[in-house]
Amino acid sequence: MKKLSAKKTAALVIGAAMCAAGLAAWIYQLVQGMQVTNLRNSFTWGLYMGSFEFFIAMATGGILVFSIAYLWNIETLKPFVKIASIGSLASVVAAGVAIFEDLGEPFHALYMIITPNVGSPLFWDVVILTLYVIVCLVAVVLTLLPDTKKHVHDRGYRMTNEENCRRFSFIAFPMAFLLNIITSFMFATQNTREWWHSALIPVNACAEATAVGLSFTILLCVLMVRHEIFVENSDGIRLLSRIAAASIAAYIVMSFIEIVPLAWSGTQESRHLLHLIFHTYGLLFWLQIILPLLAMILFLVGGGLGKELVSVAGILVIVGIFIQRMMLLLPAFNSIPLTLPVAGKLWTFPIAVGTFTEGEDVFVRFWNYVPTAVEWIVGILPVGLIVFVMAAAAILFRLNPGEE
Predict the structure, then answer these.
(1) Domains of the chain
(2) Run of H or E including 261
């Protein structure tokens, strides 16, 4: 028990240190301005926006586990709903932090309240994000209430609470998918970006979110659930593994379907975009496919065979989908929509980068975006927040059945 408590404390300290480092770097960014990042006029969304979309996807898993457990009364999933719900809450808060990091001036967010533009997808992103935070909070409260001193020995209350969880799941389950559909409209509605302007993006976002969200939840359960409880309820983990595997298959299929119209059109713009996808960023494209594919195989053959296989599979999905979120941005911004056919070739109008550095171009047709050291450290903040919240929850609450 002392060894377990030491691990929880160590995780809490690590999470706090990550938050402190990220917050310090963010303050530095606010003081110095966004020029400390590698974002420019030609490449306006980078690590922070990619992280926002990634954490939104991760936040899906816990609410799905909560909803599936109670809607279909799957007993082998119920020991995991506390950890799953708290993981979703931590992830959606991390997504909110990532959005604020992307703003050069965080107080600009107030304008969305003072003068909302209901015609903007970003406005609806904020609305659905706020609603999802509330859903996660309610799910966390419902799962923790039976363990309070007042109700811990009250069997009648536990039965009533289970029914309340089941009823709430009718709201939570569709909200998990609605969150990803609405946030993906931020990309799909941009008809000047050929890489984004696709009706498949919201659908694929749901598949990706199910895959990475359940993988993240499985990984949390591996790390936080006692071994004997994990083994006793391995049927629940096997079920989640199979759902994650099916979602990965759907994601891979839709990823290639999105390529077909580009190749079929044969326009100069499409050929340029395909060159970016398969040559300039070819390694990243194939990693976003191969890593989840390997995880799918592991989930199918090892979903109930032990913590090691599902842990490796979960990590592969998390890394693969994070790369996919960044791949949403890289080809899109370097396929500049201001073009002109000249002598049978596509000529791109240069775009001002927005900064002046001696010896560097002021106008560019391509921006080699790689996050700076400051961006990476700032990006640690939401990750540290998740680690801190999960460690604090493990210390404060009974996350395993039978814990004091």
Answers:
(1) 38-337+363-371 (1.20.1630.10)
(2) helix 234-265
DSSP H or E stretch at residue 128 = helix 121-144
Q: Where does residue 25 rank: exposed (0-12), middle (13-18), buried (19+ CB within 10 A)?
A: buried
Instruction: Report the chain's mean pLDDT, rounded to a whole number.
Output: 91
- Rounded to 5 degrees, φ, ψ at 72 are -105, 10
Residue 46 token pair: 């980078």
Give 39's contacts (C-beta < 8 A, 6+ positions apart): 45, 46, 369
DSSP state of 280: I
Residue type, 280: T
- State the amino acid at position 344 in one-letter form: G
Secondary structure letter of residue 44 according to DSSP: -
pLDDT digits (tens, 9 = 90+) for 6-57: 888 999 999 999 999 999 999 999 999 999 999 998 899 999 999 999 999 9
Amino acid 74 reads: I
The phi, psi pair for 196, rounded to 5°, reads -100, -30
Global pTM? 0.94
**Strands 345-348, 351-352: pairing kind:** unpaired
The Cα 260–Cα 268 span in angstroms is 15
Give pLDDT tens digits for 321-343.
999 999 999 999 999 888 777 77
Q: Which one, of 49, 46, 58, 38, lies nearest residue 99 by Cα?
A: 49
Rounded CA gap, 396 and 320, in Å?
33
